[in-house]
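User: Can you help me understand a structure? I only have the sequence.
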Amino acid sequence: MRLARMQNLAVMCIVLLCSTIAGAHASHAGPPAIHARAALLMSAGSGRVLYALHPDTPLPPASTTKIATALLVAQQPLSKSYPVSALAAGMPGNHLGIAAGQHYSGRSLLYAMLLVSANDAAEAAAEGIAGSDAAFAARMNALAQQAGATHTHFVNPNGLPAAGHVSTARDLALLARLALKNPAFAAAARCIAFHIPASSSHPGKNLVNSNTLLAVFPGMVGVKTGYTAAAGYCFVGAAHKGKRLLIVVLLHSPNWQKEAAELLRFGFAQAGRIALKQGALPSASVIGYKNMTGNGPAGTKDGGEPADSGAGSGQDAASAGINVWKESEGARTLNNARNALAAPAKKLYGRVQHSLSRTHFALKVSAVSTHLLKRFLLWGGILLLLLLLLWLAALLWRRRRKQKPARRRKTMRFGIARKQPVPAPVQAEAAGAAGRASVHFEKPEFLYHSPAPSRCTAPDWLSRIVETPALLMEPAMRRHVRVLLDTHPKTTSQALLPLLKHPGARTRALAAGMLLPSHPRRAEETLLSLLKEEQVSLELRTEAVEQLAAHGHDRHERLWVEMLLRDGFIPAARALGRMDALDDASAAAIKRVLEEAKQPADADAKLRQNLRDATAMLVLALHQPEWEEKAKQKLRELPPKHRDNVVVQMLEGQPQDFALDRMLECALTGHAFPAMQALLHLPPGQVTAALDEKAEGMDTAEKTRASIIRWLLTGEGDAKRIHALADAGNDMATAALNQASLCRWNATELPAGALTAAAQIVSLRLGYTSHTNEEITSALRRSLKSDAGPGREIPDELQPLSSAYENEQVYHAVQAAMQSDEGMNELLSALSVAEASPMKRAETAFWADKAPAPVRYLLMQHLCTEQDELSHEALAGRTMDSDASVREFALRRLRTAATAPSEAEAAVQQESPIDQAA
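Assistant: Let's start by predicting it. Here is the structure, written out as tokens:
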């Protein structure tokens, strides 16, 4: 044992020695070789330039333009709603997939611009803020002047190629430096994935950041990627190490990930070195610098003479009219600086030269002493390590010398040593010891021990919701109200009915959608009246149509046909397409409009008519196969973005082969992410069979996309290859990895403590607490290390949950439960079968009347195993449950608990088949 410890110590010393030498070598290494057309590395705190390559050369900035656009959006209220015009919806290049007439919040557009570089989102924001591209570009240019970006001129909000649309590496760094001071911008720039919640105006969308360095480079916090054929690959990034934040800019780089990482590592390696040898003005020191005209920094000529200080100069030395540097491979001497000062005007600056020479001499002495001290510490440390290694080697050699005579005597007595069989008990004991030893290296299970926070009952919670109807805007709140309509039908419906007469149209629509199952007549009347009102927004009309279509079946078919033929309303067309059969009169009306349609001369009107015709043909194709070819031809006439949008919205969830083929075409050749999400709703076997049929005609790019889809749906394929594609910048692979983490989340693998903590956090986020939303949000955000918001004191009761939220398992469980009914039901189902404990039993009792009937049944099963007052009260509360199975189960368990133990065992044996199966 002692020998093994000494060997481990020797290995550690060797590793430490090698790392010390490597660190010493790295600290003196020069800047990396950069092949971009322009590059800059800047300290965000001081503005000091650490590396520059053609920093003031005007070049097209591509989508890094959206830094200015996003900052202007972040300066507006993020809850502001922005309408989408036909111009914005038709933007080429990367896009969010928005459609004309939809409304998006400023927060959604901000994240869409910074994460997926959505050109349509940038255009919608520009029109919503300034009214036109020209007016918005004027604001962008004013913002650039405010940041000091004097060589920048913006023409559009998205960075698409345009004459005169240019910027420089230095200007982009200054813009990023200003933008990162805005909390909303900084939060969006460092976000890896973001979900745009669905609304009545648009479906939900998942966004994955195109900046792959966020996941692989430590400390990366953004900022923006970009690419066009003219600009090449561009990148503006920022990363922190400790309290030091660096900004890197690359324009037209052949490998922006590699070069950005190398520049940032170079910058952080220089963090402890004060560049005294480069001049007497630290505020303008430059560690690694290259320039188009020579080796001097901006503001100097090739020979090192001071240039004329212009209005746009960003260097302190240039603005002062004095040059104290002569660059030679990144290193200058104070002597050269003094000579450069003395040569031009020795008599005029005599006194200045004398004082500077004294200062330079003191700085030089200080630099030399610091250099000698570093050398002494470095080589002294290396010498000490070598002596330690020699001592360990001598100790090991002496120990082996002592063991050799014993080995020699054993060999002489027994000859060649034979391997003796080990008795079984000894083998078992050794195996047990090895197992116990291995447990020490496993990740410890998450433990959570805390009393349940104080929470209100379901009726009290419902009263609060009714008093503040704006809370129903949150999808999770609406889903929970629908659950309470099942568990407390009478109380909940009576509380919601007055909201049908609320003055707000949005509140009336939300209440009607939730009351459709219990009060269909009154709810339908409310929704139909909203559709007839002229001032109702497109978002509310869409929600009303979807609610009526989900519960009204074919009773509103004529209304859907009218809305489709009048303005090509896609929700109405989707409702027609999902009907079991299309009425002959409806089909005849649609065909008649298609045959009589004439192409208008106006481009926008022509696009709107083509969209309507394509949507109408898809409705016919879903019910009449002879229209499939005509629908295909019409879809080919649409712009790619609009085609993909119509296909995904109309054909999502449709099982026909025609719908599946169109969806696969979109996923393999078009805007892949929405189509890939839609394919998740179809049987995996059907999708993979269709992919097999198309395999022969696919090119390389399509085969790559097909492999990603197959892996996401079935798990087939090499996961390492998907990760490699994501690391290489494949957006579809990155989105698939993110989607897989949500789809394959398994609550049964979580420990009981994580499940309990997640359930408690979900209850607080739903509002079952006296704490304000600000307190809860602050407590949860404080636990996330990426949060940089203002500090707020966390109540003592929330401290344990704030700490628990730091655990990755708890975090993902809360996100899954808040995003969908399936995630919530999976969390509570796993909680019901988790390891028994008083804390888990209390949480089970809390959710006993706040879950769907199947989950309530599971919760009842595991509450009946405990003979305590809390479990008894929960069972008693379910004796009046709306679901017959839950009600009968609670009654039977209460009767069984009242009998003697022997009688209870007999009663269990005589239970109904439902109870025995449970």
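Now, to help you interpret it: The mean pLDDT is 76. The first strand starts at residue 38 and ends at 43. Let me know which part you'd like to focus on.
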